[in-house]
Amino acid sequence: xxxxxxxxxxxxxxxxxxxxxxxxxxxxxxxxxxxxxxxxxxxxxxxxxxxxxxxxxxxxxxxxxxxxxxxxxxxxxxxxxxxxxxxxxxxxxxxxxxxxxxxxxxxxxxxxxxxxxxxxxxxxxxxxxxxxxxxxxxxxxxxxxxxxxxxxxxxxxxxxxxxxxxxxxxxxxxxxxxxxxxxxxxxxxxxxxxxxxxxxxxxxxxxxxxxxxxxxxxxxxxxxxxxxxxxxxxxxxxxxxxxxxxxxxxxxxxxxxxxxxxxxxxxxxxxxxxxxxxxxxxxxxxxxxxxxxxxxxxxxxxxxxxxxxxxxxxxxxxxxxxxxxxxxxxxxxxxxxxxxxxxxxxxxxxxxxxxxxxxxxxxx
Length: 364
Fold this sequence. Notes:
By secondary structure, the protein is of the alpha/beta class. The protein folds into two domains: about 10-100, Helicase, Ruva Protein, domain 3; about 105-340, Ribosomal Protein S5, domain 2, CATH 3.30.230. It contains twelve helices and 13 strands. The chain has helices spanning about 15-30, 40-55, 65-80, 90-100, 105-115, 165, 170-190, 215-230, 255-270, 290-295, 310-315, 335-360; strands at about 10-15, 60, 125, 130-135, 140-155, 160, 195-205, 230-235, 235-240, 240, 250, 275-280, 300-305. The strands form four sheets. The protein has a seven-stranded mixed β-sheet with strand order 6-7-5-4-9-12-13. Strands 1-2 form a two-stranded antiparallel ribbon.
């Protein structure tokens, strides 16, 4: 005898063959355990649940325990309405019942936001303030939490202070994201003059540990807004990480994040201007609830997929991002141009102050 180490797949490709196998498995369990037969619509709903479990529209979950529990509860709802078969509505009722039993922490968070205890705006504009998105994972249940991210900017020596890190409330991955953000600023806006900026970033009203880099896109947009004094649309929330070249990278929990902001917006009234900006690389992970899909289809809520920083800036600030011209500078009436102008003003003021301290006057 000897021991072996074997890795098991957590998901399988969503193919016609695997769909048929899953449908047969559902039918076999129903017969063996005396459950009512599942209709084609009910099986299709179960397959959708399996895909949502792994957050990937191209895969199904290989973990069947959650699916089997859902089958048992769907059978109960069919029995309750006196039906001979389990239909799609019974599966939906079972899903909703699970949500009601598990969602007390989410509902309490929304109550605190509605009462103004936690400050999250879903309309208007603000400089240096943006809606980020986090995921609260409770094991068997997770939900998206909108969170306020703010930035300040002023003349300085090129330092970006991560308040979460300074207060020892963030991990190394989050700190790495802020350092990447700093590198992006220098490479884009300080190619011929020093980066004469002092800035700070913070997750407002966050009293727990912050980890991960999925907020780095939101942090960058807030910082550029504060630098250029350009207001950000508060009707949008942002998730996504960035690299040093401004490409937006995939993150986890995209469905929960979108649905978390949607629930908040719906409780306040959908205006048609609200939505979420996500990485384009996460488009394949979208398995949203039916009510979110319906709202998006009717145009009262939006999901924007971006692959670089530029389209996110344009959506948030209402100006073209701007391309660098042949003279090496950005057009003035663009986001990049406004940021570049502000940073050059910081540099000029810093030179003047340095000259005054040396007693050389303002001609230096």
